[in-house]
Design goal:
β8, α7 and β9 form a beta-alpha-beta unit. The strands form 4 sheets. Strands 9-8-7-12-13 form a 5-stranded parallel β-sheet. It starts with 18 loop residues before the first strand and ends with a helix. The protein is α/β, with parallel strands linked by helices and 408 residues long. 27% of the residues are buried. The chain contains 10 helices and 13 strands.
Length: 408
C-alpha cells in the first residue's frame, strides 16, 4: 500500500518504509528509513537496527510509535553480523598490490524493489543468507531518543552533507521572495545535498492525489491548468554521483511525483527536459540558481519559444552567491538580458541577547537597575517628594537668613 510523503502528510504514528528522524540531542539528529526487515544485511538478530553513540534502536521498537515519543535504547545482539559481511564481501581485507575484486564482489546483489521485503526466491537468486525471525528487543538500562516526523527544517539539520547546503533561514526568505505558492513550477540548478529541494517540494505541493506518480512521461501532454495545479520542482545537478544519491533519497521520501532530478550541465545545455516522445514544457514561474557562476546559465533563461520560463506570468529569479564579485558579474548579465527590478540582499544571522530590566523607583541604588518610574502614579509620587524637599530646603534657607539678620 502506498502512502503520501511524510513531508506532506505525516501519519499519527511511524509507519514502515517511511523516513523518521531520531533526535538524540539538540544538535544531533539521525535520519533512517524504517524497515520491517534488515535491508542492509547487517545480520542483527533484532532485524534492522540504527546504531548511535547514545544506544541502539531496533526498528521494531520504532514502528507504530506516535511521533514525538521517547524511545528507550535496546540491548542488541550482533548475531551473525561478521559472517554476513564476509558473505557479501564487506569485511575482507585486501592484500597490498592485490586485485580490488573478489568472488564475493561478483555475486549478484539484491536491489530494493519499491520498498518490498525480498522473498525467499529473491534471496536464493542473490545468494543471500536466509533471514530468521527477528528477535524481540530487550530495553537497555540507559539511552533514549525522541522519534520525530520529517520536515524540510529537520531534514536540513540531519541530512548527510555532500555539499554546502542552503539552511532554513535562507531558503525560507528565498521561497517567500520568489513568491512560490502551491501548484507553482520552480527550477533549481545546483541541487547538491537536497536541502532546498525538499523545502521547494513542500512549497509547491497542493494536496494533489497524484503527487506520488513516478517520472514525467506524458507530462507534456497534460493541459496547462492541470500541469500548473500539480506543482513541480525541476532540479538540475552536474555531479553524477550526487544525482544518483539524491534520486534515491527523493524516491525513499515519496517525493518523486513532485521532484524531477536531471543530470545536466546547465551552463552548456540549459534547462530543457526531453523524454521519448517530445520536449517537456516546464513553464517555470520561479528560478533558483545555486551555482558557482550563475551568469553563465542566464543565457538559457530568456523569452524565446524554447524557453523554460512561463510565457504568460512574471518570473522571479534568485541567485545564491557568497562573494560580491559573483554578484557583480551576475547583475551585469541580468541587465544585459533585460531582467528588471534587480535587488541584492545579504542574509546574516545575529544572536539576540535577552535581558530582564528591573524598572521602578523601589529598585533605586541597585547595580544595573534603570532608576525610572514604572508608571504614572509612581512618577507623581516621586515628583511630589522632590517638590516637598525643594520647599523644605528654601524654607530652611529663608529662616536662617532671617535669624542671621536679627542677630546682627
Amino acid at each position: 500500500m502506498s502512502y503520501p510523503s511524510p513531508f506532506f502528510e505525516p501519519s499519527a504514528v511511524a509507519r514502515p518504509d517511511a523516513l523518521a528522524i531520531l533526535h538524540l540531542k539538540r544538535d544531533l539528529l539521525t535520519p533512517t528509513l524504517l524497515r520491517t526487515y534488515d535491508d542492509e544485511q547487517l545480520g542483527y538478530a533484532e532485524g534492522k537496527v540504527t546504531t548511535t553513540r547514545y544506544g541502539n534502536y531496533p526498528h521494531s521498537t520504532l514502528i507504530g510509535q506516535p511521533w514525538g515519543s521517547q524511545v528507550k535504547a535496546s540491548l542488541v545482539d550482533t548475531g551473525t553480523r561478521g559472517r554476513v559481511g564476509l558473505h557479501l564481501g564487506k569485511g575482507k581485507k585486501r592484500k597490498r598490490g592485490g586485485s580490488s575484486s573478489s568472488p564475493a564482489d561478483e555475486r549478484p546483489v539484491l536491489e530494493d524493489n519499491n520498498n518490498v521485503e525480498p522473498t525467499t526466491g529473491d534471496r536464493e537468486a542473490a545468494q543471500l543468507p536466509e533471514v530468521k525471525e527477528a528477535k524481540a528487543a530487550v530495553p537497555a538500562p540507559t539511552g533514549f531518543c525522541h522519534l520525530l516526523p520529517p520536515t524540510p527544517e529537520i531534514w536540513t539539520a540531519s541530512l548527510p552533507h555532500r555539499t554546502q547546503v542552503v539552511y532554513t533561514p535562507d531558503y525560507s526568505y528565498i521561497l517567500q521572495r520568489l513568491r512560490v505558492t502551491p501548484g507553482a513550477s520552480i527550477i533549481e540548478a545546483g541541487a547538491g545535498s537536497g536541502s532546498f529541494t525538499h523545502a521547494a517540494a513542500r512549497a509547491v505541493f497542493n494536496g494533489s492525489d497524484d503527487a506520488s506518480a513516478d517520472g514525467h512521461d506524458g507530462y507534456a501532454q497534460e493541459p496547462t491548468r492541470a500541469r500548473e495545479a500539480r506543482g513541480k520542482v525541476w532540479s538540475f545537478e552536474f555531479h553524477e554521483q550526487r544525482v544518483r544519491k539524491l534520486e534515491s533519497e527523493i524516491h525513499g521520501h515519496g517525493l518523486k511525483g513532485i521532484v524531477t532530478i536531471t543530470h545536466r550541465d546547465v551552463y552548456q545545455d540549459g534547462f530543457s527536459i526531453e523524454n521519448s516522445a517530445s520536449t517537456v514544457s516546464i513553464y517555470a514561474s520561479a528560478v533558483f540558481l545555486d551555482l558557482p557562476a550563475p551568469w553563465l546559465a542566464l543565457k538559457h533563461l530568456t523569452r524565446d519559444p524554447s524557453s523554460p520560463l512561463h510565457p504568460l506570468t512574471s518570473v522571479h529569479l534568485c541567485t545564491f552567491s557568497p562573494c560580491i564579485e559573483q554578484v557583480q558579474r551576475t547583475v551585469s548579465a541580468l541587465r544585459s538580458l533585460g531582467w528588471l527590478d534587480i535587488e541584492m540582499v545579504e542574509l546574516s544571522a545575529q544572536r539576540i541577547e535577552v535581558r530582564r530590566d528591573r524598572i521602578g523607583l523601589q529598585e533605586e541604588g541597585l547595580r544595573g537597575v534603570n532608576a525610572t518610574p514604572a508608571n504614572v502614579d509612581e512618577a507623581i509620587v516621586r515628583l511630589r517628594e522632590v517638590e516637598g524637599r525643594d520647599r523644605s530646603y528654601h524654607h530652611g534657607m529663608t529662616t536662617k537668613a532671617q535669624n542671621d539678620g536679627l542677630g546682627s
